[in-house]
Write a structure and sequence with these properties.
Elements: E1 4-8, H1 11-23, E2 30-33, H2 34-44, H3 46-49, E3 56-57, H4 60-69, H5 71-74, H6 87-103, H7 108-123, H8 130-159, E4 161-162, H9 166-177, H10 179-188, E5 191-194, H11 202-211, E6 217-219, H12 237-244, H13 260-270, H14 299-316
Parallel strand pairs: 1-2, 1-5, 3-4, 5-6
């Protein structure tokens, strides 16, 4: 069996990596997403992890339903959290926050300790100060959130469920707790490749540090493409990696997907960003059409312009049946 482990962020990326390696005759490398690989570790060591193939994953929709059904049990203080007619929206935000805390390996006890320490400090200050009032309100609200976090974790334990984030965090906990299991995987995978490195979060980096004590790690990523911050992507992951290993940095400057005008515009937009690692990006493709920046007065105007533009493109190139892709911020 291959001693090469390849990890990436999405199933699509894992599939593409597998296809490319197969073209070069490499068929026995272990290629997986972080979550699928972590779930495999938990299942292979079910005696120690307490999780097996029959363990069910609680989906996002089921999490929200559970929150709504248990609202009365949370005993919220209406001075700091009033659900009103926004239950779904508020619980979705709370569940997203729970996910972020888990990705940072912060338990409900850790959150509560942070709340108690800060409220104690605030009690020693003048309660009439605007800053004190604002911070006190914030930590009181956070305390209401933590009621849900505590209850949610208790529910998962009671029903022997896990959520998406638990695949990672429980794997980290298992590898830290059991040196024999950790050693087995360290010996099994002597070389580790991580793709889309910029999209990984703190807990995923912890798995790398645990498995990659040998230092044979190749991390491929681009901090300019860090698009998963809303899912907890760790913005300082490259600096953390460099401080953890003695490594060489290889800059891949050529862009194979875009024409020259797109790459030039990308450079113009990215270069002014402070603390950004400077890169010399270029494209060997043709110059391409000039990029148009359109500003409309209203959202409806933006929709109308987009629809009209698509209709013009289709009308102009009807015989070619053009494919048009429209990207938007959610």
């Amino acid at each position: 069996q291959s001693s090469i482990l390849c990890l990436t962020f999405t199933n699509k990326a894992a599939g593409e990596m597998k296809q490319r390696l197969e073209k070069h005759g490499i068929i026995d490398a272990k290629i997986n997403t972080f979550h699928a690989f972590s779930k495999e570790i938990l299942e292979e060591n079910f005696m120690e992890s307490g999780l097996g193939r029959d363990t069910k994953i609680l989906k996002k929709s089921s999490q929200t339903v559970w929150c709504i059904r248990n609202t009365d049990k949370f005993n919220f203080d209406s001075n700091y959290l009033e659900l009103g007619h926004n239950q779904v929206r508020i619980y979705s935000a709370i569940l997203e926050a729970i996910s972020n805390f888990k990705e940072e390996m912060i338990s409900p006890d850790g959150v509560q300790q942070h709340i108690d320490e800060n409220l104690k400090i605030l009690e020693s200050r003048d309660p009439e100060e605007d800053e004190v009032k604002e911070q006190t309100k914030f930590f009181k609200k956070l305390n209401e959130f933590n009621k849900v976090y505590y209850a949610y974790q208790a529910h998962l334990k009671e029903k022997q469920l896990i959520d998406f984030d638990d695949m990672i965090t429980k794997t980290v906990e298992l590898l830290k707790k059991d040196p024999v299991i950790l050693s087995n995987y360290q010996k099994k995978f002597q070389y580790i490749l991580v793709d889309e490195f910029q999209d990984n979060n703190f807990s995923q980096l912890e798995i790398l540090k645990l498995l990659g004590k040998h230092g044979n790690i190749t991390a491929v990523g681009d901090d300019d493409q860090c698009i998963m911050k809303f899912q907890g992507a760790y913005s300082g992951i490259f600096d953390d990696f460099k401080s953890s290993y003695t490594c060489d940095t290889v800059e891949l400057s050529q862009n194979y997907r875009s024409n020259q005008n797109i790459v030039k515009l990308a450079n113009q937009l990215l270069d002014p960003i402070s603390k950004r690692v400077k890169k010399s990006l270029f494209s060997a493709q043709e110059e391409g059409e000039l990029i148009k920046v359109i500003r409309t007065a209203t959202d409806n105007g933006e929709v109308e312009f987009t629809v009209n533009t698509i209709q013009k493109i289709i009308g102009k190139h009807q015989e070619e049946r053009p494919k048009v892709r429209n990207l938007q911020r959610p």
